Amino acid sequence: MPKTVDDFNKSRLRSSNITVVISISLVLFLVGLFGLILINAQKYSDYIKEQLVVEAYFDEYLDPRDSAKTLKFQEETFAKIKQQNYVKQAEYISKEKASVLAKKQLGIDSDALFEEDIFPASVEVTLKPEFVDPQKIDGVVNQLKAIDGVKDVVNDNKLTIDVYNNLNRILTWIFAFSVLFLVVAIVLINNSIRLKIFSKRFIIKTMQLVGAKRRFILMPFIKEALVLGLIGALIALLALGGTWYYFTSQIGTPFVQDTNQYVLLVIIILFVGIFITIASTIFATWRFLRSNVDDLYYS
């Protein structure tokens, strides 16, 4: 049975809407993927920075025979270190534990090469990632040295600077690519919407010529853009969630590590999908509302 003109127009409209939704979904999926990479790259960067510990050694001016007094003194110093705002984690290393760690690092099982408790007690301080900065680390070391009971603080400044600079360089490139993909997403979504509106330019102009107001003409297109943008964003989020779930299950990491950042990424994807679709629809439709009839044949 041959199709009527209305059936043909409805079929073409569905095809056009499906094409726009798929375009929006694919572009937003890539944007979300780069967003996930950026979030987890930042987490990995923080994790690497947290491996750069600072070692604070206790002042040992007390009589070593008075072990109880020495232990209490060290506990008080350890408590002061943990209270510092730049400390993420602090671990007390006793003389016995220091000897065990030294043997393990050197691969020695025998006690023959070591005198009893040759290594001093200390505190391994893990700094918050924002303080692992070449411009801040020296100040942190000086503050640790100023704590009563701390004799010396050891930190590998060169290693800290190298790690910090390399991680920041990587994060900068990832952020730049994420912004680039966001711009590309805006351009591609805008082009898809403009092509859709272009196919309806004669309908828009006909409605205007018979007396319809611009707001009346715009509203159906805006509502349709809202629905298409929302559907495209939801499809992108479902595809992104499925891809991320598969990836995290394969490498054995939690699906969600920071709820706030993941929620922010979802909001950004929804915002880009809906806002850009509506904005592009308004600009494209407005262009034909302001044009002459003759211009429609050469647009």
Automatic annotation (TrEMBL):
Classification via Gene3D superfamilies: 3.30.70.3040
Entry annotated with the keyword Glycosyltransferase: no
Localization per record: Cell inner membrane; Cell membrane
Sequence ranges assigned to domain FtsX extracellular in this UniProt record: 74-153
Transmembrane annotation, as ranges: 20-39, 170-193, 225-247, 262-289
Origin superkingdom: Bacteria
GO biological process: cell division
ABC3 transporter permease C-terminal domain span: 176-292
Bilayer topology: Multi-pass membrane protein
Key words of the record: Cell cycle, Cell division, Cell inner membrane, Cell membrane, Membrane, Transmembrane, Transmembrane helix
This protein's GO CC annotations: plasma membrane
Major localisation: membrane
Keyword Cell inner membrane in record: yes
Signal peptide limits: none
Reported function: Required for cell division and gliding motility.
Family, per entry: Belongs to the ABC-4 integral membrane protein family. FtsX subfamily.
PANTHER family, alphabetized: CELL DIVISION PROTEIN FTSX
Protein name (record): Cell division protein FtsX
